[in-house]
Amino acid sequence: MNTVDHIAGHTYHGRKGAIENAFRYSVDYILLDPEGQLDTPALFSVNRTNITNWRDLDHGGEPGQGRGAAWLRERFDEMRIASPQMITLLTQPRVFGHVFNPVSFWFCFDAAEQLYAVVAEVTNTYGTRHSYLCHNSEFAPIQPSDRIVADKLMHVSPFQKIEGTYTFRFDYRPDRVGVWIDYGRKDGGLIATLTGPRTPLTNRSILWSLLRRPFGARRAFLLIMWQALKLKLKKARFRPFRTAPVPDQPISRFREP
Fold first, then answer.
1. β-strand pairing of 103-109 with 86-91
2. What tens digit of pLDDT does each residue of 156-175 get?
3. Residues 6+ away with beta carbon under 8 Å from 27
4. Which of 56, 95, 115, 137 has CA atoms 20 to 30 A from the CA of 64?
5. 137 CB-contact burial (10 Å; exposed 0-12 / middle 13-18 / buried 19+)
6. What is the pLDDT of residues 5-44, one digit of tens each?
7. CB-hemisphere CA count at 13 Å for 213?
């Protein structure tokens, strides 16, 4: 994959339980090979300043200190998992130098070009990051109907406890990408989705997205703050980040069925 795809998609979040809240926003993601020699439009760069860009330091390791795909391969080696033949990353790009990614996804493919693992890289608004390694038993190819369960280990929303599980579902196709996350716990939970078509990233698509959704990830951050205010007004319980434990390991594995 020597080009960058633009996913002009939608994200939906629906809170379950006694206090309900839901929203659906349009978003701009990119899908790229973080190790490839990429053919990019003039308004997008890799590891260089531009109107929109992507940098290794934003992924794979602590925010701002990442090492990109090299970090992912090292983690696979530590866990004695076969290193991917190819990796693609689904994430929001930097826009005017600013980046904010609540969740990015590393898609890992074997020599037969089968998707066999996905790493969900979750970063909360406090700057803490934890990644969840999703795969089937024996690393069987991941199909759109598969549901992969992982225990929640990191504080994400101050309105949710650190308990329960994430159930992931992935649909990775040549023409579109879909991710569904069902966060379940005894007294509620959350449904989160990200879906959209894959089209080549061009100067025109970059400019059009900036007109329709200015400031990129900064806009996403402000929308999250707006939803937090709505939950506060609905008297949802707020749990300060200082009371939340931080995972010991940077990456955790799925729960065996």
1. antiparallel
2. 766 566 778 899 999 999 99
3. 8, 9, 10, 11, 92, 194, 196, 213, 220
4. 115
5. exposed
6. 999 999 887 777 666 667 778 889 999 999 999 999 999 9
7. 22
- State phi, psi for 248 to the nearest 5 degrees: -70, -35
In angstroms, what CA-CA distances link 252 with 84, 93, 135? Answer: 18, 25, 11
3-state SS of 183-245? Answer: EEECCEEEEEEEEEECEECCHHHHHHHHHHCCCCHHHHHHHHHHHHHHHHHCCCCCCCHHHCC
Q: Are 27 and 11 in contact, with CB atoms under 8 Å apart?
A: yes
- Cα separation, 246 vs 241, whole angstroms: 10
176: its two tokens:
């579109």
Residue 180, both tokens = 């569904």
CA dist., res. 30 & res. 53, Å (int):
10
Phi, psi of 145 (to 5 degrees): -85, -10
pTM value?
Answer: 0.89
CB of 67 within 8 A of CB of 89? no
Tokens (6 digits) for 208: 């059009």
CA distance 217 to 223: 10
Which tokens go with 130? 């934890």
| Percent helix, strand and coil across the chain, each to the nearest 5 | 20, 40, 45
CA dist list (Å): 15 to 155, 163, 166, 233: 16, 15, 14, 15
pLDDT averaged over every residue in the chain? 86
